[in-house]
Write a structure and sequence with these properties.
Structural class: alpha/beta
Order of helices and strands: EEHEHEHEHEHHEHEEEEEEHHHEEEH
Shape: globular
Oligomer: single chain
Strand content: 15-25%
Number of helices: 11
């Protein structure tokens, strides 16, 4: 870790003592392909009405550059997320890219809308022991699905969940979950959604909606602290540009290009160090992207065991973990989360 405490941009009167930063991130989000088959209104990219918005960010991460990034970070065994603002099953060379991660001994998590999950892809995900697959559903009825995702074929999406579960059978992986982003059009269905999937999948993830630079409905500690994400996660766009946050869809808070400098240099570089400095010295106004955000509370979890589930709640996220399926949750899936098995043992 390079010592930036004497850099010219540091106010020495603040007596800044930099926090420790790992040599490489524990989580890497790679924008393999910004392509999607849905136009969900909630999405910053595909929900925008102006076509030029998509034109600014869509693209595909070069396959050889992707491999070079994976080669560089593999010693740290980070959790790899295979997509940012795209449907992973639409990425070119999908199977090659999945193998690239797994053959290097890293964990892989995918979020999908499920509409392109064929039997072949389901068998492949099980065969490759992809660590986690979450289906973004966000609705318990066709009517709500149409409002939040612009399609009515809820049966097809639910069938995709069951298809993957059938192919997995008694195997431990993938860890299979469904997710629900709370919005005006679906909030009345949250209870039904949890009841629908609580005894079916391994995990249900419920999140507040990100809009206008922050998450809706968050209430928690008033005293702000540095965001945990900037010490854990490196976000790499399809251009090789790295950002400080997965919510930075339009590359407003860039810290360098990994194609040009490599992931380690960007992660420990001056641009990222400045971001951490401003957070650690309570100068959030110096980081316009971060100033209005409230996601720094996302890991303030409280736990409850109820109805066969380990429920973990933070202001931003709630996880309903099926206790009978905790064995397929392992440390590499952490991304800042405490192992549920460890929680139960307390």
């Amino acid at each position: 870790m390079k010592d930036w405490s004497k850099a010219e941009w540091v106010d020495q009167s603040l007596n800044w003592k930099p926090r420790e930063v790992t040599k490489l991130p524990e989580r890497v989000i790679m924008d393999h392909a910004t392509k999607c088959n849905l136009r969900c209104p909630m999405c910053q990219v595909w929900g925008a009405e102006e076509n030029d918005v998509q034109e600014k960010v869509k693209g595909v991460l070069n396959l050889e550059e992707s491999r070079r990034i994976l080669d560089e970070v593999m010693s740290a065994k980070p959790l790899i997320h295979g997509a940012l603002y795209g449907e992973p099953l639409l990425m070119p060379d999908f199977k090659e890219r999945v193998r690239d991660v797994k053959e290097r001994g890293m964990s892989l998590a995918l979020n999908t809308n499920g509409l392109r999950l064929t039997n072949d892809y389901a068998e492949f995900l099980v065969e490759q022991e992809v660590d986690a697959v979450f289906f973004s559903i966000d609705a318990a009825s066709k009517e709500a699905l149409l409002e939040v995702r612009g399609v009515e074929n809820l049966d097809k999406i639910e069938a995709a969940v069951y298809r993957l579960m059938e192919k997995r059978g008694d195997e431990p992986l993938p860890r299979i979950g469904v997710s629900f982003a709370i919005q005006d059009a679906n909030e009345d269905e949250l209870e039904a959604f949890v009841e629908r999937w609580g005894t079916v999948v391994d995990c249900i993830r419920v999140s507040q909606l990100y809009e206008n630079g922050k998450f809706r409905g968050l209430s928690g500690r008033e005293e702000r602290e540095p965001c945990p994400v900037i010490y854990q996660t490196l976000v790499i766009h399809n251009t090789g540009e790295a950002s400080i946050c997965c919510n930075d869809a339009f590359r407003q808070a860039l810290v360098g290009n990994v194609f040009e400098r490599g992931a380690e240099d960007v992660w420990n570089g001056e641009e990222f160090a400045k971001i951490r400095y401003y957070h650690e010295t309570n100068q959030y106004d110096k980081v316009p992207f971060c100033e209005p955000c409230n996601a720094w509370q996302q890991f303030d979890y409280e736990e409850e065991v109820k109805d066969g589930m380990l429920i973990r709640r933070s202001p931003q996220l709630t996880y309903y973990n099926n206790i009978e399926r905790l064995d397929n949750w392992h440390e590499s899936l952490s991304g800042g989360h405490e192992n549920p098995n460890a929680i139960l043992e307390k």
